Amino acid sequence: MSRIGKRPIPVPGNVEITLEGAHVTVRGPRGELSRDLPAAIHVAKEDGTILVTRPDDQARHRALHGLTRTLVANMVEGVSDGFTRTLEIQGVGYRAQKQGEGVQFMLGFSHPVLVAPPDGITFDVEGNNRVHVRGIDKELVGQVASNIRRIRPPEPYKGKGVRYLGEVVRRKAGKAGKGGRK
What we know:
four-stranded antiparallel sheet, Outer Surface Protein A, domain 3
């Protein structure tokens, strides 16, 4: 049995869950999320928790069991608490500033890069070198943060670029120089 899949999902009192076959809708104080789950995996509500079960031990069902449980748990957590990914900008002259709903990045290009948030995502800029990506859908928050990081990923020689908060970038040594040559 899947150790992740068999764990019950606690449902806070302010979250409402609707199960219609393989379709799950979760409503909470921050919004509403819905998703189609694999038809073979059974999702049921019991006593303020959600249980995810699989019909048998086929490899496909074992793989989907833990995934389905995690997807539903992330939906419940998203509508009650929300998710945040924080990006850090490092480099001389590299900065970010809020512009309307979006964020304008100065990352060493000849032009500023403006990033507009998709529906369900908000940006907060802390100082001029931290950007918080917030939303209720964990998958979308992570994808938007990844797209921003991809504009100027951290380079290994000086470490300049956009990185996740706490990300460690392995540094390389630069050129050795002309040392012992004559």
